[in-house]
Here is the input.
Amino acid sequence: MLTGEKNLELLAEPRNIVITTHHKPDGDALGSSLGIYHWLKAKGHRVEVVLSSDFPSFLDWLPGREEVIIYPEAPAKAKDLFQQADIIFCLDYSALSRTNILEPIIRDTKAQKWMIDHHLEPESFSDLSLWDSKAAATAQLVYTFISQLCQDRSSITPEIATNLYTGIMTDTGSFRFRSTSSEVHRIIADLIDAGADNCSIHEQVFNSSTESRLKFLGYSLLNRLEVIPEYNTAFFSLTKEDLIKFNVTTGDTEGLVNYALSIKGIRLAALFVDRTELIKLSLRSTGDIPCNKICREHFNGGGHLNASGGSSHESLDNTVALFKSILPQYREILTK
Ligand code: 5GP
Ligand code: MN
Here is the structure.
């Protein structure tokens, strides 16, 4: 769905643009941001990517990542950029609260907000929005934005293609989730033609673990995985001490929840991480089990049908207990 299309005219002149995405960006969030960053820069705009937090080390090679401004490291400079901005791109989120510390700053600016996103139930804060909950990734929509809305496929450089490929690859679980349509494969083929080195991208994202990350995975599988067979549910719960022991940094828990879902018969998988200030929850499901509804109703979050997240200010034990206590409500759908 496209709204506010007429505002695209603004891009005819050089503008001050700030690109934002959600807190703790994943491959799609950072890949979309850096993909459109390179394109806007090449069109002559003054562009910055401002993040509310750092990003995972497995993305610390994406073309342009060294230009990113991390708000807590340069708050005055970042605030100034928001104040001067004509346009703020809001990528891979459709609720401003997902930008964490940036939310009040984005709300306060006079800049136009242009949202490109694929999450369910978008808030209405944008002056232009390209939104499709069926899109496999925001990076797919950025490709659409450049190649169709702006009719500028020929400007997709290897840097742009690499970032967009990474976004689509990570958000589709390497092209295996249901969202991976033939259209996605066609776009991916075109990104390879535009210079994305698919083999090298997979190598950099998936074969870049540290020894301690791998040992942390082994430890979590052995000691922190609990299966509830009567509800076809499995989950991990990680304590603060676990994170310290294995020197866990941003991105190290990425993908862990999928191991719980990979057990035969498991239809709902969760990961609880004690991040000290709050408990962060990741939920994954198969079929029509609504992770987003569960997160929205019980864990102050949301997301997609089969992949959602949320948080809790209770203790880790209490959060896990709450999760277990709500499973009976979903008995029918979990066991059918
Ligand atoms: P992850 O579990 O990988 O952190 O997030 C999976 C998906 O859940 C994300 O793509 C995002 O859509 C959603 N999500 C994660 N955390 C939150 C949250 O705190 N609030 C909302 N509304 N969605 C979230
Ligand atoms: Mn995404």
